[in-house]
Design brief:
50% helix, four-stranded mixed sheet, globular, two-stranded parallel ribbon
């Protein structure tokens, strides 16, 4: 019997994933006659537009053998989020919660057609095993293609290119130019931002800490983690290591 881990996920380019996230935002804005602004209303998109059920679950109890942040039950149209990410109880988890939710929305938009067909869904627990969750999103450094695609979708959904570029220009007092890590090092002379809550142990960690501290105001504006914002700014070549051609 074929397991879900053996199902081939179609290769998607970054442009295709960005287009899917952009289309979802367009549909939501058109349906409810609203303008998309930061922070992107990912809960309303999931629950009101897509009509998915959002539940906080004890993922530690459901999946004791793995560190699980979220899961999706396609056939039941349920997104489960680890209760330890509930931002009402744990406000510091807001960014992680929103990214996890956007990640699961990414699975819904990009991958549900792989799991909904009868020949897959009707095999039930014998196939999908883990409490009938078709996709279980573990915290791991080894990201499968299906997880990487959902991550990219989440980044584009929560931090759309157009909104980021507009916010960046405002943040940079009207300039849309990128900033070099060397410039940031100069700006942070005598200041030592923490890296993951501790003192950096290498130049690489210090650079990451500087970038994430610098990105902090934008992260707050978009209600994402500083790490997520730093990664997005690097993807859009707004924070750069060296002079490179910019993405249009």
């Amino acid at each position: 019997m074929t397991s879900l881990s053996q199902i081939d996920v179609p290769e998607l380019t970054p442009d295709e994933i960005e287009a899917a996230a952009t289309e979802l935002l367009r549909q939501y804005a058109e349906k409810f006659d609203v303008e998309i602004t930061a922070p992107v209303p990912v809960e309303r998109i999931a629950e009101i537009h897509l009509q998915l059920i959002l539940e906080f679950k004890d993922m530690k109890a459901l999946f004791p053998m793995a560190e699980v942040h979220g899961a999706i039950w396609f056939s039941q149209e349920i997104i489960g989020i680890d209760q330890r990410l509930d931002p009402e109880l744990y406000p510091l988890m807001l960014g992680r919660y929103r990214f996890t939710l956007a990640h699961e929305v990414g699975h819904w938009c990009l991958h549900r057609h792989l799991f909904i067909p009868a020949e897959i869904a009707h095999q039930g627990d014998l196939l999908i095993g883990e409490h009938s969750a078709e996709v279980v999103c573990r915290k791991t450094s080894k990201r499968r293609p299906i997880e990487r695609q959902a991550d990219e979708f989440a980044a584009n959904l929560l931090m759309p290119r157009s909104l980021i570029r507009k916010a960046w220009a405002e943040f940079r007092f009207g300039s849309d130019e990128e900033i070099h890590i060397a410039t940031l090092r100069d700006q942070y002379q005598g200041r030592d931002p923490l890296f993951r809550g501790r003192k950096p142990e290498s130049q690489q960690e210090r650079d990451l800490a500087i970038k994430e501290d610098f990105a902090g105001p934008l992260a707050e504006q978009f209600a994402v983690s500083r790490e997520a914002m730093r990664i997005r700014l690097e993807e859009l070549e707004l924070i750069v290591e060296s002079s490179t051609a910019r993405l249009l």
